[in-house]
Structure formats: structure tokens, C-alpha cells
């Protein structure tokens, strides 16, 4: 008899379960509340079918049979009611979550849904909050980059327009014969050559910066000694330092190898040294050091510029940033790209670059790993 009851109950349960799964498949695109209700109905129906089968098999008649069926029916309705309540709560929580997502605008942050949510929906809410935070940070970076690009275009346009206008005036004076004496003609020619050189450097910087921003900077790393790198950088800017009346000092450990692209890293270091010379007054000193420190090397350039305003420190490496006092550069000033290029080159080497106020000026510092894949 027991085997027969088990067989009948299992058979009815499987039939009802199959019908329930088929119904869930048909309703797979509907509300989760409806799906939960179907699950509850299938569970109650399978239970009722088993109880009815047992009741019939045990040949319960009369009042006991009615009592059993009534109790089972009431229990099924209670279970169905509880399932409906749970379904309504889940649906309400999901709607609150959807409303919180729909309430987000391009100018606002994601505000989590009010009230407590089921654990799974709470996890989704936290994930959405983190995703919207990343999107917001991305939008801010894009706005900052767009602002920097517009500022760069405006400043470069100004820096191009001014020397071009001067060269045009000098060329016209030479063509029209307004200037005829040899000394003035020679001075005009020298000035035109200097302006052409400055414009060429500006174009080179713009090209380098565009490669960095496009991710097209291709490094050819190898083991190099920083002593040689410092010496080459100082030799390349010696003429500028003498013209400005600035003393240069270089210090490097005897054996200090680093895995890097010598040409690109040398350019980054020269940019820092040139920037230091330009902002150091006459008779000031620029010190370049290369030291090892706990698995990394530090390349530092210290100047006597008088320091950088604290509000400007976070923007020093931004494209075209010169500071309020230097928006109109003199003949020896660049387009404000040198520090941005240095940062791009250092980051391409998986290093870090920073600036701090120190002593009579500020100190720029590059940090790089001592060794690389060549070890």
C-alpha cells in the first residue's frame, strides 16, 4: 500500500510540476510576482494531489474525509496567500529599484531605493550605485579633457598667431625694401629663424602629445644608466641655463639601472629641467638628482621658482596649464605642453610623477621601477 501511495503521489507531482514548468516558460517575460504565484500554486496543487490520493487510498469516508480535505484546502489557501504577499513585496521592491534608476539624470547621482530590499536586489542596487559612480567619474574626466582641449586650442592659436604676425611684418618689410641696412636685415633674419624654431618645437610637442593621448606612443625599453640620462639632459639645456644665468647641478648614484626607453624618458626629464630653468630667477640653482629608494628610482628636479600656489598644484600636469601669471608666454616659453608630455611618458613607463613645494621653490619627482623584463 505504501509503495502504491508513493507511486500515485509521485506521478501526480510530476504531472503538476511539468504543467507548472510549462506555464513558467510561457510566462517567462512577465512579472516576477506572477511567476512566484505560479510556483506557489504548483506547490499547493502537488500537496493537495498527494493528500487527496492518500485520502482516497485509505478509503476515508464521511466526516473524517471532509475534515481532512477542508484542512488541506485551508492550508493550501494560506500558503497561496503568503506566496502572493511575498510576490507583492518582491514586485514592489523591484519597482522601487527601477524608479531609482529612472530618476537618475545626466546631472544627478544615483540615489538607492528607499526602504529595505531583498538581499539579491540590494546587491543589484549597490552594483548600480558603483556603476553610476564610475560613469559620473568618466563624464567628469571627459568634461575636464574637453575643457583642456578647448583651452589648448585657444592658447596654441594665440601662440601661433603672435609669432606669425611678427614674421609676416618682418617679411613684408624686407620685401618692400622698408628695411635695407645690413644690420637690421640680419636681425630680422635671425628673429624669423628663432620664431620658426619655436614654432617647430611647438608642433613637435603637439604631435608627441597627440600620440600619448591616442595611446600610440611606442616605447623601446632597455636597461639604461640614470647617470648618463641625467648628464645628457643637463648637456642639452646648458645653453638655456647660461642664457638665463641659472646654475645646473646633477647628482646620480654610480650604478643605477632602470628599464626604460632612453629617448622618451630623456625627453620627459629635459622637459622638467627646462621648466625649472624658465621659472628660476637669475643666479638661482636647478638641482637634478637620481637616487634609489626601496625598489624604485627617483628622478627629481628642484628649482628656485618661489613655489606653486596650492590651488594650482593639482593642475600643474594638465594640458596647456601655465598658471595665471604666465598665460602670455615670453619668447623662451613653450605652449604649456612640456609637463603634460612628461606625465604621459612617465605613465607609459608605468611610473608616477608628482610635484611638491620645497624650500625656495618646488620639486618635481619621477618614480620608476629599478629593474624590468631584462633581468
UniProtKB/TrEMBL annotation:
It is an enzyme of class 2 (transferase). The keyword Transmembrane helix applies. Its EC number is 2.7.13.3. The keyword Membrane applies. PROSITE patterns: HIS_KIN. The chain crosses the membrane at residues 6-27, 34-60, 66-87. It catalyses: ATP + protein L-histidine = ADP + protein N-phospho-L-histidine. It is found in: Cell membrane. Gene3D superfamilies: 1.10.287.130, Histidine kinase-like ATPase, C-terminal domain. This is Sensor-like histidine kinase SenX3. It comes from Sphaerisporangium flaviroseum. The lineage of its organism: Bacteria, Bacillati, Actinomycetota, Actinomycetes, Streptosporangiales.
